[in-house]
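Forum: Protein Structure Q&A
Topic: Joint prediction for protein chains with partners

I've read a bunch of threads here and the consensus seems to be that you should model interacting components together rather than docking separate models afterwards. I'd like to see that in practice. Below is the full input, 201 residues plus whatever partners are listed. Could one of the regulars post the assembled result?
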Amino acid sequence: MRLFIAVLAVLLAGAFSAMVAPDAQAKGMEYVGVKECGKCHKKDKEGKQLSIWEESKHAKAFENLGTPKAKERAQKVGVTTNPQESEACLICHTTGYGEPKSDFSKRFSMEDGVQCEACHGPGGEYKARKTMKKISEERGPDGKGKSATAEKTGLKFPGEKDCKVCHAQERQHNGKTYKNPSYEPFNFKDRWEKIKHPIPS
Ligand code: HEC
Ligand code: HEC
Ligand code: HEC
Ligand code: HEC
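Posted by a regular:
Agreed with the consensus. Here's the joint model:
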């Protein structure tokens, strides 16, 4: 009987860890915030993605919701609450809006606006140097190839349609439709030119 219980315990433990495994993985896919990415993506020889981003409007997307202009824009679409606290604005002016709190690391800050991970996906699983280098190798010298590691760890290489989730006249969220009060036609080529941040070859 004792042996039976011991075996059962081992089996249960096995089944249990198999059950929690997906959770542990999901935990890895958390938003770590731009400061984390910036640690390794700031030097000239790396392509100084951090400062390119800091100088872009994406970095100010949350801050700008606190201006008188934002209040005006909000009224235009019938939003009378503080834009910095309104889902109607935050969905496009922050990163990962609406995801559960457990998907954000403690260092993540919504105040940093539209961050790296708004476009590249949550970085918890891919941000380790070893993983990043592996992805880079898999994509090859022209940086255009497919990377199985990128897919597994959730690193995305966005394109026009990903921009247009926010650069759109409106966006759906939890069954509601929110209008973009500042919409302007979006030409990918011109806009990308303003924020591109290549790794120097
Ligand atoms: C569907 C996504 C979306 C929603 C929802 C949205 N915005 Fe924006 N907002 C944008 C984009 C994209 C831009 C940049 C406009 C451009 O250059 O095309 C922008 C720009 C702005 C600007 C800067 C405009 C300028 O002329 O400098 C303000 C202010 C602003 N939004 C306020 C708000 C407020 C307030 C709300 C909520 C009532 C809101 N936005 C909701 C996507 C959105
Ligand atoms: C510990 C250092 C480190 C951190 C933290 C880090 N990266 Fe990287 N990343 C690298 C290195 C090294 C490379 C490979 C650079 C090369 O090939 O020259 C890289 C490559 C990349 C690439 C290009 C992959 C390719 O081959 O096309 C992207 C995109 C990227 N990182 C985004 C991010 C984002 C977003 C974050 C934050 C969530 C982040 N990185 C955090 C070190 C890091
Ligand atoms: C999570 C939503 C979101 C995504 C995804 C997004 N943007 Fe933006 N973008 C914004 C918001 C919001 C602003 C306006 C910020 C402000 O002025 O306060 C903006 C502003 C800009 C601006 C500055 C306006 C200008 O033309 O000078 C450029 C350029 C831009 N985005 C390019 C892009 C490109 C290219 C992509 C895709 C690769 C992209 N964006 C994806 C939300 C987004
Ligand atoms: C508005 C969306 C957007 C934001 C924000 C953004 N990126 Fe990117 N990033 C892109 C796109 C689009 C590409 C080009 C993808 C491709 O080549 O297929 C790219 C490419 C890269 C590359 C690879 C460059 C190369 O030469 O292969 C790195 C590294 C990178 N991003 C890092 C970052 C870091 C770090 C941040 C934040 C500081 C950031 N990105 C913010 C959209 C974004």
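The domain at 26-195 is CATH 1.10.1130.10 (Flavocytochrome C3; Chain A, domain 2).
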